[in-house]
Amino acid sequence: MLKKLRDIQWNRVLYFTLFFIGVIVVVVIMAIVGKRDEQQLCKDVKIVIEGTEAFIDQADISKLIEQNYGSFVGKKVNGIPFQRVEKTLKKLPYVSNASIHADMDGTIRINIDQREAVMRIINKNGREFYVDPKGLKIPTTLKYIPHIMVANGNIAEGYNEALDTISTPLVKDLVKVAEFIGKDELWSNQVVQIYVNADHDIELVPRVGTQQLIVGSADSLEQKFELLKTFYTQIMPKVGINAYGVVNVKYGGQIICEKRGNWSFSDDQTKKIANNTL
Questions:
Q1: At what angle do helices 169-182 and 221-230 cross, to 10 degrees?
Q2: Do 144 and 123 touch, CB atoms closer than 8 A?
Q3: Cβ count near 151 (within 10 Å)
Q4: Which residues fall within 8 angstroms of residue 200, CB to CB, at 6 or more apart?
Q5: Residue 230 CB partners (closer than 8 Å, separation 6+)
Q6: Best exposed site among 2, 13, 128, 255 by fewest CB in 10 Å?
Q7: Sign of the dihedral defined by the CA atoms of residues 142, 148, 153, 159, in that order
Q8: What pairs with residue 259 in β-bridges?
Q9: 111 phi, psi to nearest 5 deg
Q10: CB-count exposure of residue 95 (10 Å: 0-12, 13-18, 19+)
Q11: Alpha helices (H) in the chain, listed in sequence order
Q12: Rounded to the nearest 10 degrees, what angle do helices 82-90 and 58-69 cross at?
């Protein structure tokens, strides 16, 4: 009998005994937590909105939730339809993503990622909308006007209030031009607006001077803007700010300048200007 007792591996017995006790403890704790979760009431709602824009604020989100689901405060946490709330928030045209969760203390936290506008479009019918970096349209609002590039003129792209994508190559080109300008301090300061003329060529409206700066399309932008830089730094200082009415770099390999009004230059002077020898 004593030999049989000595043969028993007491370490294994102790291990399995502790294991089963641990399982029982976990089950009890889960039951207690589950019971508490069933009774947990929402004590507060915290809304965090990320992004550089201000299309919406915490009051807008609170109002939307109140209208669709009533007040969360005082309700049982497990009775709040988190997934439905997220879907509702994601339908807002100014929201790129939304999430909602509850803390252990009964606080509901709502996180909103706001869309960023990179350009404002005013089409030929006067319809306005913003465009985000992904090419999605955003409705304008009087509540907030971002400081971004504006394009108008002969633009046919429409907008029907839906969060649809850009449909015309022209507007895609306009966004590329606006983004290129926005990344360069010189051009961000010099170009105040973009205009689409009757030939569907993209023009830049300068802050200094009244020239038509024609870039045509978004092809070869680096080369075209380098040519415009040559015009401003080498040609304009020699002939004056009002000598040319049109500066055309749409072909990418040359600057075509049209003289304004009664301004006139001899062929010899034109060659010297082009060769930087005037």
A1: 50
A2: no
A3: 26
A4: 154, 170
A5: 255
A6: 2
A7: negative
A8: 244
A9: -110, 130
A10: buried
A11: 2-7, 10-39, 58-69, 82-90, 169-182, 185-190, 221-230, 236-239, 267-274
A12: 130
End-to-end Cα, the chain, rounded Å = 118
- In the sheet that holds 212-216, the strands lie side by side as 137-138, 128-131, 119-122, 149-153, 191-196, 202-206, 212-216, 244-248, 256-259
H/E run at residue 48? strand 44-50
Query: Is residue 227 within 8 Å of residue 192, measured between CB atoms?
Result: no
**Order of strands, sheet of 44-50, starting from the edge strand that comes earlier in the sequence:** 44-50, 107-114, 95-102
Report yes or no: 77 and 40 within 8 Å, Cβ to Cβ: yes
Strands 44-50 and 107-114, sheet pairing? parallel
Query: Would you say 115 and 90 are in contact if contact means Cβ atoms under 8 Å apart?
Result: no
- Residue 217 bridge partners (DSSP): none
What is the model's pTM?
0.75
Question: What backbone phi and psi angles, to 5 degrees, belong to 181?
Answer: -65, -40
